Amino acid sequence: MTANAITEDSFEVWGTTAVLLVTSPLAAVPARRLAEHVLADVDLACSRFRPDSELTRLNEAGGEPMMISATFADLLSAALRAARLTGGDVDPTCGQALAGLGYDRDFAELRAGGATPLRLAGPAGAVPGWRRVRLDNGARRVRLEHGAQLDLGATAKAWAADTCAEQIARRTGCGVLVSLGGDVAVAGTPPPEGWQIRVADDHAAPPDAPGQTVTITSGGLATSSTTVRAWTVAGRPVHHIIDPATGEPASSCWRTVSVAAGTCTDANTASTAAIIRSAAAPAWLRDMGLPARLVRHDGTVETTAGWPGDEPGGGA
Amino acid sequence: MPVYDSRRAAGQRDAGLRRVGRITWRAAAAGLAAAAVAALAFAQHATAGASTPGTSTPGTSTPATSTPGTSTPGTSTHRSRHKHASIVIPARPPQPAAGSGSGQVTSGGS
Known about the structure:
The complex is a heterodimer of chains A (316) and B (110). Chain A has eight helices and 17 strands. Chain A is of the alpha+beta class and 316 residues long.
């Protein structure tokens, strides 16, 4: 099979672009249907901007326990796992911190200047912490302690990409790539040349934008960046990657980090944690054997664990 | 009149000591076996509780793999990809692309 046999479909979701690539044209329609089903499920479970989502209702439950769906339980499990595996660097209880920066509505509206930040000055302080989330997965019951407010933005999109890819591959029997705003998951038999992925600061960047093109054949690849989902609060530039220790946007020596891992969720967990860990990130990634590409603010690049070097003139 | 038989008494003493030794040995072996079983059970419990958000409270978070049923087909397989206790490295690191063929996507901030 050649690259020309790959069928592409794309559509807007969650204020970003979803791209589905399948190795058989016959799989395109069922792939879209499966993806839309999964994405609708995830949206109803954990959108911070829907009053009827389970996450919104849990955030408003005032610490009372709440019964939840299997999908939300899985999403919460993924978020808590990310927190545990990163020593709390990727923390789902940063909802209040983001809302305090005005990010309490759809990002397009926020960037257009429609938000009213709740907190304009003074330190936010550490987030409540993932240990405040009491999840009984077997009983599908969860409770938030000490006023914790959830935001699953660090893991939900990647989890959705993993789930879409896995279901599409199993139902259609073909190779599939799912990209949700640059969170990429692949499953099934890949094309012979592998899945080509351009890594860049912005998932919406044109193909000739500075970056690097690599191929993967399994798992996932995710990129976290402080340059795209960024806005200003009272003249201060801020972004969406919260350092749980301060409750403020992470102050990192990296503007963009891309990581390849066994799943997109793990890749995104590591790339987000790397932004927060700043200078300590390369050693952490190397210790785990995770291939990564880290871009400093001046555009210089550092790689870890077998990530290929940039092509000449590729730029960052 | 009873005659004190020192050789018989020594033999009985030795036999008694051997019995005590056997009992002690069996008790020690049983203790070791019980400790091994307890250690194994604890290890399994600790692994299962690893996703518990930092608490010893019974019944808090269990691994995603234990979630019964789901409304989303195939989620169980997905869960199996996330049961690992550490971030999973890829089967193979990314490779340099030979060219910009069709079907390319961009991974970047969003």
